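Subgroup meeting minutes
Present: P.N., E.W., G.H.
Scribe: E.W.

1. P.N. recapped why we're keeping a running log of single-chain structure predictions: easier to compare across weeks, and new members can see raw inputs and outputs side by side.
2. G.H. added today's entry (215 aa).
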Amino acid sequence: MTPETELRRLKDVLALQQSDVEVVGVDQGADIAASLRAAGLGFIVDGLALMDVTEDEIAKAQIRHHPRLSDLLWHSSSLLKPTHPSMFRSEFVYRAHCRELLDRVAAGTPTEYGTAAEVCLAVLAVATVTPINTAAMGLHLRMWKLAGLPALGGPGENLPHYEAIAGSKIDDLETTARKKLRVEDRVLGDIRCCGQHNGVHVRCEYASVSRIAAA
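Output recorded in log:
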């Protein structure tokens, strides 16, 4: 998904309206974007590095969740595709994106809807070109915290303030943003396994009995 697509989908609901009193200006939006870049702590420079990060997050998810979900989580790698250039530039953002999707797989909840990381990036895409409204700034801070991204410092400390004055609007905006950032084909289809994970023979629940016996 490109920043242009995000702007088109969300600009109307995130941008300043005449009725808004407190806003975040373009300069502040650029400052937040700079904080995001600084939070990256390392670039994902190529496909192999991306695969390493993906496999690491899957391994961590297998530890977080019940052992019976281990095979399902291993086969969920097809869901973990970067949807924004910043996911290549910021390892923390990509990891947050993976974590949320893997936790949804484990919980059996839909994986199509936008992740907290995707919402953060969408808000930033808007904030760098036009002032955003109070609820949009509150949404950004809420999603940043939910994604487990590094502390923002000054701006991040204002989340309780935004929740207090615009909590219900932020709730509605979060629902809208996640729906608008929906990736229709980000779903697990039928899972088939050859009985090997990374070249190692395993007794995967998605491998046929004949394949396991052959292994």
